[in-house]
Amino acid sequence: MIVDSYDMESEPILNLESVYGPKNYLTERCLILFSEKIYEYVLSHYECRQIAEVIACNGNIPIWAFQRNGQEIAFYLTPVGSALAGSMTAEVNHLTGASKFIMFGSCGSLDQRITNGKFIIPSQAYRGEGMSYYFAAPQDYITIKNADRLEQIFTQLHLPFVKGKVWTTDCPLRETVNLVNKRKQEGCIAVEMEVAGVQAVCDFYGFELYDFLAAGDVLEEGNYQVEKLSDANHNLDKLQIALRILDRV
Asked: What is the mean predicted confidence (pLDDT) over 24-28?
């Protein structure tokens, strides 16, 4: 069973040194991007240089960096999904030394009355994926450790937000009516695909994760809404917020 996957009694057979060689220490802060449009914007509007790349059989993923306020900021376009996004944080840390990750993207609202017009700061994530069970002892939810710090930053910046539980899933095609209602009854206000796994990896290795979301589609029985999804994915306001968070962590 997947809940038996958390093994702290033996060592991993594969380690990053075997793949990449010794660990590098190039920068401390890193942006995790999901939007190709935001990624291309950063590449075209900042003086960027490639500092590393994550190896993959279907195409290597470059890691870039640019200067901001005298600091070098790394960034990359991550794959979607908890397993790949979580694994990449460990690889990027090994390749660059980055240990403070700012992650932002879209999510599905489970309660439009709460999330409408506001950014979402996850406080806990339901572990409806597989990645986190290899990096954290089994339980239904994982705590998002820097939620309170992000709440302080959003308050300082006078940004509209709501803080609450989210549901991390590996399978958006199986967000059934019963499961949506169950998560809502537990207090979840949004559903997404990465937070639980990435947080588990960051906890395991001692990285810092700062994550915020923008609601795009709305999951309501008989009234699925998708009109705001493109804006939630690609609007540059999230990039500007992430850069301001970087100045404060």
From this structure: 96
Ranges of beta strands (E only) in the chain are: 29-33, 49-54, 61-68, 71-77, 100-109, 119-128, 141-143, 161-169, 188-192, 208-218
Q: Average pLDDT for residues 82-107, to the nearest whole number?
A: 98
Please give the mean pLDDT across all residues of the chain: 95
8 A C-beta contact, residue 115 and residue 190: yes
What pTM does this model have? 0.96
Closest CA to 36 of 95, 76, 2: 76
Judge whether 123 and 164 are in contact, CB under 8 Å: yes
The rounded distance, in Å, linking the Cα atoms of 104 and 212 is: 5
Residue 27 phi/psi, 5° resolution? Answer: -160, 165
Q: Which domains does the chain have, with CATH numbers?
A: 22-246 (3.40.50.1580)
> 80 with 194: CB under 8 angstroms?
yes
